[in-house]
């Protein structure tokens, strides 16, 4: 403390099952000193685009969150790349449904494994990640805080565009 240094967070891949039984992955980032049952604050960080994917590699933003005591969960819901065409097209004309269920399954996985406190959950994303933030905060009360970057909050103007 006070030295201005922090330990690099650990990133790994976790695998779990979504609401409908689909296999999903996420890449949690946590401090090496964190232990199960530690009741850590958790931040769900959905990625943008949506055709993108997280990997268990170094990312400055996520490391800064982890260094400040957050378990950062980086989900790869349906719509993400790296798992084939069917997985990437899993949200075609259906944004905010199964992809959000997959994101919430990532939260449940972290809580179920004892890494996150269900009373200290946050969510925040940018672009499509912001959209993936808007859906759960508009339909449930499980998150105590949220930040949504430039995203769509009203989708009727996108009708017929693949939304």
Characterization of the model:
With 163 residues, the protein is an alpha/beta fold. It has 4 helices and 7 strands. Strands 1, 2, 3, 4, 5, 6 and 7 form a 7-stranded mixed β-sheet that branches. The longest helix is centred in the middle third of the chain and has 15 residues, at 98-112. 39% of the residues are buried. The mean pLDDT is 85.
Brief account:
The protein has 163 residues and is an alpha/beta fold. The protein has helices at 60-67, 85-88, 98-112, 128-139; strands spanning 10-11, 14-17, 23-30, 40-44, 70-76, 116-125, 145-148.
Sheet of most strands: 7 strands, mixed
Q: What's the alpha carbon Rg, rounded to whole Å?
A: 16 Å
Q: What is the average per-residue confidence, as pLDDT, rounded to a whole number?
A: 85
Proportion of helical residues: 10-25%
Spans of at least 5 consecutive residues with low confidence: none
Based on Cα principal axes, name the global outline: globular
| Strand coverage percent | 15-25%
SS elements, strand count: 7
Distance between the termini: 47 Å
The multimeric state of the shown protein is: single chain
Instruction: Return the string of H and E elements.
Output: EEEEHEHHEHE
How many alpha or pi helices?
4
Structural class: alpha/beta
Write the layout of secondary structure elements.
Blueprint: E1 10-11, E2 14-17, E3 23-30, E4 40-44, H1 60-67, E5 70-76, H2 85-88, H3 98-112, E6 116-125, H4 128-139, E7 145-148
Parallel strand pairs: 4-5, 4-6, 6-7
Antiparallel strand pairs: 1-3, 2-3, 3-5
